[in-house]
Amino acid sequence: MRTALPVVAPFVALLLGLTWYVQRNGFFWDSILLASKYGQWYYQTSFSTLFVPQEMAGYPPLFGMYLAAGWHLFGKTLPVSHFLMLPFLLGIVWQVYLLAKRYLSGTWVFLGILIVFLDPTLLAQSAQVAPDILLLFLYLTCLNAILHHRPWLLGIALALMALHTPRSQILIIAVFLTQLLWHVREYRQLSKPMLGKMLLRYLPAGLLLLGWLGLHYRHFGWIGFSRSSDWGTYSTLVTTPQFFRNLGLIAWRLLDFGRVALWLTGGVLLGLSARSLPKATKELLLLLTVPLITLSAVLVWFTNPIGHRYWLVEFVLLGLLTAHLLQVTVKRKEARAGIYALLLVSLVSGHFWLYPQRVAKGWDATLAHLPYFELRQQMLTYLDQQQIPREEVGSDFPNLAAPSDTDLNKDHRTFPAKNLAAQSYILYSNVFNGFTNEELEDLQEKWVVLHEVRAGQVYMRLYQKKVSTYQGVPISF
């Protein structure tokens, strides 16, 4: 533990500082539903039921109940919500350290962890009250439990994954396949008694998962998703063109925000040493590729938007693999230092990657989103000062939720979904990905900017429809 402290302390300080800095930021993106609305339901009902209302249903209760319990103990506030993430964030530091210590040596343990925690998406999710942080912690715990032969820890982590999110349930399969393949590589055999003993550790998770799905089906009449829900259209099977589009999206998410440098570096170094890969390199490749293939094999068949945060496990293991390959493959210290510096610059640059207005960006996947919360509050204050009712202002996700859901206050007013043909005001931000190209053109041609606020890469604009007159009669364009 004494040898670990100097290595992990800077990353503990980083996450403590980040949590302190963002403690007043509201819930963002999918966390508005999966954290705030779920947590508030269990908080308000005092855990009297497992089931949320039909329009919210589809996710297991673990994360929402965790937040609700924390709010009962410490108060239902934004700072409490952010600090409730710290146990998992610090747990991730420890789990990454254990992996780094296994596959790196000397100063490269620290350097490998630094690559991991400079990943833009990991930092961005760490700045939010995000269920994917808990998922990452549980998955890394499973990996270290397998590598360090701790079956009881593995069983506990798997059981929690069974009650967390649909993706954590899918990744239970990835954990099993990883353990199976690792066992075969390690012992060169797999007997039926060994397989039975291995499966025994998955039994509690399997029973919990089947029990939850059974109860959910009995209560709602469906599992997975309801076609009547807001996201039902995103859970249908893809057409052939959409299948290949999903493959492209997965590749884009993996390469995006500076990670392209890690994949290129890792690919080149693997190619140079392909004839004699060390055992440790093969292990890391196994740990990386199994969850990547498992999750991709499921997601690619559905129209559900594929987010950057889905691949946090891969981003962590990619950082460790790249650092490992640099250490064992590149012999010249100057070359290693130069390549490493380029990797760090590439990752830091990811927070500044700005796509054209008509290309959707993963705003919850870099720290570029941080100004949004203050700008949104400024715009809400402006609307109140100008006495513009919110029901007259169209907007888009994630700005459709009430401040009572995003900021945990008592303001239940909401914006209606945008309808440029019927509304006189539109509140737009480049953070919103739901405006079509035609709607963006419409805003430029037939609307005027009534008020704008901006900071960093983020801006918000309040548009008002242009009004002209013909023979004294107002005409809206």
From TrEMBL:
Transmembrane segment boundaries: 81-97, 103-122, 153-178, 199-217, 250-272, 284-304, 310-330, 337-355
Coiled coil: none
Repeat recorded as keyword: no
Keyword Phosphoprotein applies: no
Keywords of the record: Membrane, Transmembrane, Transmembrane helix
Full protein name: Dolichyl-phosphate-mannose-protein mannosyltransferase
Source taxonomy: Bacteria, Pseudomonadati, Bacteroidota, Cytophagia, Cytophagales
